[in-house]
Specification:
The protein is an alpha/beta fold and 280 residues long. The chain has nine helices and twelve strands. The strands form four sheets. Strands 7-6-5-8-9-10 form a six-stranded parallel sheet, with helices on both faces. Bound molecules: zinc ion.
Length: 280
């Protein structure tokens, strides 16, 4: 296995492995490899007695895609690397245009992370919408947070138009409903890109005239390996801040918490959970 020099070091492993021989891999689009296997869920492994997970102190990882982490980055922060790399790729898909504002519809960890990457790569400002007070509290640390839970559609429109009269250069929709698509397109500026992060199996009526003036709608899938060291560098440099995201929970306390979360999905008592299985 490669990267022998990392033995004994603190590393962040890429939690997926691609095949390397399919047409997507060979074209440099490994994020679209149909033969990808993941640590932590069963996809791609086929029928097995055992699927590798990560809820334990030590796990085997693929050496070729381990990255050493700086001493000042905690294991808990590094545990968010998968979603941070996804955020880097999402932001690339959204074509952040330096000097233009960015709108995030749905400010969970993905939306929050994309907002931070957008600011790092030149967005003039970020505006984050959500209905959850937990998400809004986190969003307010990153940019302009708008709690839409008690606002009418017209009030949201007016607020966004005041902030960005010429529209946003990029819009990231982490909700993906007909309503959020409509909102995003309404406020997408000329030559702007709307990224749909939550594609649903649902027909949506659509007037193509709304894509006039070179507006684009795109999706995003996983991340490319090069996005990972980029995300790690920005985590280490402090451009990406995740410490405040984290709620720590011991593995044995997880089942009752899951029960609480699934009982009332609207309640959202935590922003991002870090499960600490051992003594770390
Ligand atoms: Zn492949």
């Amino acid at each position: 296995e490669r990267n022998q020099h990392l033995l004994g070091k603190r590393v962040a492993p890429v939690c997926s492995k691609v095949c390397g021989w399919c047409s997507e891999c060979r074209a440099g689009r490994t994020r679209l490899c149909p033969n990808t296997v993941h640590l932590g869920h069963g996809q791609g492994w086929g029928e097995r007695d055992f699927y590798p997970g990560a809820y334990t102190s030590y796990v085997p990882a693929w050496g070729a895609s381990c990255f050493q982490i700086a001493d000042h980055v905690s294991f808990e922060e590094a545990a968010t690397m998968d979603i941070l790399a996804v955020c880097v790729h999402v932001a690339e898909q959204g074509n952040i245009q330096p000097g233009r504002p960015v709108l995030i519809v749905g400010a969970g960890p993905a939306g929050n992370g994309v907002a931070q990457v957008a600011l790092t790569t030149g967005a003039s400002r970020v505006v984050l919408l959500d209905r959850s007070s937990v998400a809004i509290a986190q969003a307010a640390k990153v940019g302009t947070a708008i709690d839409t839970s008690e606002m009418s559609d017209e009030e949201v429109d007016t607020a966004l138009r005041q902030i960005a009269p010429e529209g946003f250069g990029s819009v990231f929709d982490t909700v993906g409903t007909a309503k959020t698509l409509d909102l995003g397109l309404t406020h997408l500026g000329k030559a702007g890109t709307l990224v749909n992060l939550a594609v649903h199996d649902e027909p949506i009526q659509f007037n193509f005239l709304r894509l006039g003036s070179e507006r684009r709608i795109v999706t995003s899938c996983n991340f490319e390996i090069g996005d990972y060291p980029k995300a790690l560098a920005w985590l280490e440099s402090g451009h990406l801040k995740v410490k405040d995201w984290l709620t720590h929970v011991r593995l044995e306390d997880l089942p009752p918490l899951f029960e609480r979360i699934t009982r009332d999905p609207e309640e959202k008592p935590v922003f991002k959970l870090v499960v600490t299985p051992g003594s770390f």
